[in-house]
């Protein structure tokens, strides 16, 4: 897992008609060896943007990777405006038993500390050590994505050579553990694929070590999630392909929004409207994860579907009853403000959270 090395940079800028000092806070990505290629490309671009160079300052919402803890996943979303974090929120956090109260106590403090300190170097909350650690790791991931151009909804300007960006797929659950894939995309091509999570322990470690390099190479070679299943690692291969597809969906979502977007008055250019598929973050519920994918055309949601929903026992029937209603209402209301389905409260709440995440990505 990457360590965070946050730091504030002070930039002295001068204008032709006004002399002043402008304090610009940039978000520094973690500096582990696996990030060197990204740091050389997108990190430099983010710094240039903050200094008023060719790129635009980072603005938008960015969701960090889900971090597993002993008591459940923690996942953080930040809102950035002109390189400043204006809001932080936990879209996933441990629930159930004592965890619910500890989460309710800890998360507001962590959220506030992020905005105050503008970095992942926030204080641990007493009594919520695991949640605090997971929060900081997911926060660092969100900051990394912001610096690599992963902010959704922000304006992007300037031509020139396409720069690399990283996209992390949703974690796919398998019988032996989660699989999660991160891809690097440059010029519309996958240039690197890596598993940031894969089954470990016992025979799983060796199977992962054998399978993942082949899957990584297959992703780059085929430029799609249609990679060959590795013999002896069927579950890992299936999970890898699911997470890889999620990462590709996110990359496509970024491409759909990556053109020049203008919102000012005057001039001829209108605002570019998003089109494509956007998969929201998986939302944990008491009965299982809920995850929503939307299809957007011309800035309108034309389809919504649950790619994950609780199954087993009574949950299967409740899912079958509620999800079609939720899907229809998402299209009708064009927002996450859909009605809770009676008898499926947890599924409805999870659906709305994941739907909001997908809408954030689409910028609609």
From TrEMBL:
<feature type="domain" description="FMN-binding">
    <location>
        <begin position="286"/>
        <end position="362"/>
    </location>
</feature>
<protein>
    <submittedName>
        <fullName>FMN-binding protein</fullName>
    </submittedName>
</protein>
<dbReference type="GO" id="GO:0016020">
    <property type="term" value="C:membrane"/>
</dbReference>
<feature type="region of interest" description="Disordered">
    <location>
        <begin position="251"/>
        <end position="276"/>
    </location>
</feature>
<dbReference type="Pfam" id="PF04205">
    <property type="entry name" value="FMN_bind"/>
</dbReference>
<feature type="domain" description="FMN-binding">
    <location>
        <begin position="70"/>
        <end position="146"/>
    </location>
</feature>
<feature type="compositionally biased region" description="Low complexity">
    <location>
        <begin position="253"/>
        <end position="263"/>
    </location>
</feature>
<feature type="domain" description="FMN-binding">
    <location>
        <begin position="175"/>
        <end position="251"/>
    </location>
</feature>
<dbReference type="InterPro" id="IPR007329">
    <property type="entry name" value="FMN-bd"/>
</dbReference>
<dbReference type="GO" id="GO:0010181">
    <property type="term" value="F:FMN binding"/>
</dbReference>
